[in-house]
Design a protein that fits this description.
The chain has 4 helices and 11 strands. The protein is α+β, with helices and mostly antiparallel strands and 362 residues long. It has a domain of 167 residues: Jelly Rolls (Sandwich). The chain has a 6-stranded antiparallel beta sheet. A 5-stranded antiparallel beta sheet has the order 9-8-7-2-11. The chain starts with a strand and ends in a 5-residue tail after the last helix.
């Protein structure tokens, strides 16, 4: 999951019985305000606000958020229930952490949520192994989870953090609670105390099985008919089918969803790399174009200065020519007047000579 936010929705509604759900996450390159959310809410009320999940909801939510405090990076887990009366923000999550894990390097974490008798217990293993699961705390469930479904969301603010959901396991029959009850039964047999025994089974279908579990301590000599045995086998088979449905969801996540998410992540990475290269090319082209325009602008400014100088020189030359033109015109006028007078004198002399040469008539 490497996009800004992603969402996985289970089609199985949360059963009205005890339940244990185990998640395994890998977080690569943890960054500030990235994280995930495990939600048990009505999917119709979903919106993308905090860790890819809603900020206001009705139901139960576990927020896993990465924070950077004074150069130290941690993964903070907060288990909250809400009745649409309180808004969840990054600031509020930062101030009410139930568990903090060092996130200065890549993280592999296993989270167990165990629902027993209207309460939920949070177990965490910081190396994703079952052996190192540590109980963090429990919470009494006051909200109505009937009809809700499980959602898993992620948020990745800078495309740098990769959050991989490796596995999801659903169990009807909590191993921790069952271990506690087995120890309690051993103590009862040892001390001979016959008080009320609570069933260790999550399925509500195991009626005769629970009855047999209660009565076997009181009267071991009571013989059961073959029909009672068949009824117990039928109840166990039906309960196993219910448990198989949850295992099918785990197989769906591990067999289909996880490879599809990996392919989408790979394609997204390629697209991101190509977009990054394209951005670099466009930046280089814009810078190169800016340099060309700057050079063109400088050239035009130099040409303008040269042109202004040429105009000034031409104006000065024209002013000089304008002052010399009247003097040259006066000289030419004198030349023309002298030529005209000379021509008149010549004509007059020619007329006189002509008169003198004319013959006289008697």
């Amino acid at each position: 999951m490497k996009n800004i936010s992603e969402l996985l929705i289970s089609e199985i509604k949360v059963p009205n019985m005890d339940l244990n759900v185990s998640y395994v996450f890998n977080i690569t390159n943890p960054q500030h305000k990235s994280g995930f959310a495990i939600l048990f809410i009505d999917p119709d009320t979903y919106n993308d606000e905090v860790n890819g999940g809603p900020s206001i909801y009705e139901g139960l939510a576990l927020f896993g958020t990465i924070f950077n405090r004074n150069g130290n990076t941690t993964l903070d887990l907060v288990l909250l229930q809400n009745q649409i009366d309180h808004e969840i923000t990054y600031k509020s999550l930062k101030n009410m952490s139930d568990y903090s894990l060092d996130a200065n390097q890549n993280i592999s974490i296993r989270i167990n949520l165990t629902f027993i008798n209207n309460s939920v217990t949070l177990y965490v293993s910081n190396d994703s192994t079952v052996e190192h699961l540590e109980e963090i705390g429990d919470l009494s469930i006051t909200v109505n989870l009937t009809g809700t479904v499980m959602l898993i969301t992620t948020a990745n603010r800078k495309y740098d953090t990769q959050i991989d959901l490796l596995n999801v396991d659903f169990e009807i029959g909590d191993p921790f609670y069952a271990l506690y009850m087995r120890k309690r039964y051993d103590q009862i047999l040892q001390d001979g105390i016959l008080d009320d025994i609570n069933a260790t089974f999550r399925s509500k279908k195991l009626n005769k099985t629970v009855t047999e579990l209660h009565t076997k301590f009181q009267d071991n000599s009571t013989e059961k008919s073959i029909f009672d045995i068949f009824d117990i086998f039928e109840e166990l088979s039906s309960a196993s089918e219910d448990m198989a449905k949850y295992r099918d969801v785990a197989k769906l996540f591990s067999g289909r969803v996880a490879p599809s998410v990996a392919k989408v992540h790979k394609r997204t990475s390629k697209i991101y790399d190509r977009m990054n290269n394209l951005t670099k090319i466009m930046t280089y082209a814009l810078n190169y174009t800016q340099n060309i325009m700057q050079s063109f602008n400088n050239t035009m400014m130099q040409n303008k200065i040269k042109f202004n100088k040429s105009i000034n020189v031409l104006e000065k030359e024209l002013e000089i020519d304008t002052e010399e033109i009247p003097k040259s015109q006066f000289k030419m006028q004198n030349y023309f007047m002298f030529a005209a007078v000379f021509e008149l004198i010549c004509l007059f002399l020619f007329f006189l000579i002509s008169l003198c040469r004319m013959p006289k008539h008697t």
